[in-house]
Amino acid sequence: MVDLKGQYEHIKDEVNTSVIDVIESTAFINGPKVHEFQKNLENYLGVKHVIPCANGTDALQIAMMGLGLKPGDEVITADFTFAATVEVIALLGLTPVLVDVDPDTFNINVEAIKKAITSKTKAIVPVHLFGQCADMDEIMDLANTYNLYVIEDNAQAIGASYLSKSGKKQKAGTIGHVASTSFFPSKNLGCYGDGGAIFTNNDELAHQIRGIVNHGMYVRYHHDVVGVNSRLDSIQAVILNTKLSRLDAYNKARQSAAKKYNEAFKNEPRIKTPVTNRSCDGICADCDCHVFHQYTLKIKDVDRDALATHLNENGIPCGVYYPIPLHRQKAYQDSRYNEADFPVTNQLISEVISLPMHTELDDEQIDYITSKVKEFINA
Questions:
Q1: Do residues 202 and 303 both lie within one domain?
Q2: Model pLDDT for residues 364-374, shown as the tens digit of each residue
Q3: Residue 352 belongs to what domain range?
Q4: Residue 249 near residue 354 (C-beta atoms within 8 A)
């Protein structure tokens, strides 16, 4: 699904030299290289503050801690996503409110958000799923109307842009009040271990978060806020720095592969290829509104699981993201949820399948993968 070894071969010398430099410096935690990466990422995103941390799940939790959300506060997020998003809401004693998603983009449905807002709602967490932004214009309008925080879960869309109705183009993760991302190795910008970061343009919030990630300390042994131990190490920072300078090229390679997949499937009525965010529809100059963390198809009138078996038998990895919606997960079941409220999610879980997507895909691989998909579809 992800060819990390192939990608490493192209940057091997630079990565190896940088890692050895860190080891020889012995500045392993919060060293100069972490600060260098922080500044580089701030410049890339066009955001005032990047606060690196240990992983993407911590990033989400710390963002919520920084906003001062209290137990019982309701936080609205998507039902169709990875569990980390709802996990941190529950860990903090907040009340997760799961809502349905858009059938085309798979991102959180704005109308479903509207219906879910109550007097206890304090925040919305749009997940920029599979590589493109949720409908941030509408979400920010709702947030402004109801005085809610917006926490962007940007684990899958770093480098993507969002074109607003006003014509303003912003990087994913810089639109809401605060955002989180993950540097898990398989991400578009991934390290060789674990890592994450929080983004914000709010000076006061950034200060609060910087204390939280470091045991609540701004001065050593002075604990001003309740914090956690969540810091990016210098070895991961130099790897991320190496990759950050290539992130746009990496994303372009993913987009190129996606276009080739789309072309191969364009005459297959039972295959629905990914839909680009309606705010763009490919009209941006040098379009980067979808960076294809995953390339996810919807399969109609075909046994999706049998297709997955067929691909695996032919040496093609594939993934089903996500086979069980969050509202049905044992840890997050709640009598408040009604199956009728999740028609799209409940349909997607039997239709979606993700094909290999990474920077090293070549035409021969794509031809083989698509031929085997069509072979099964048309059997």
A1: no
A2: 999 999 999 99
A3: 247-377
A4: no
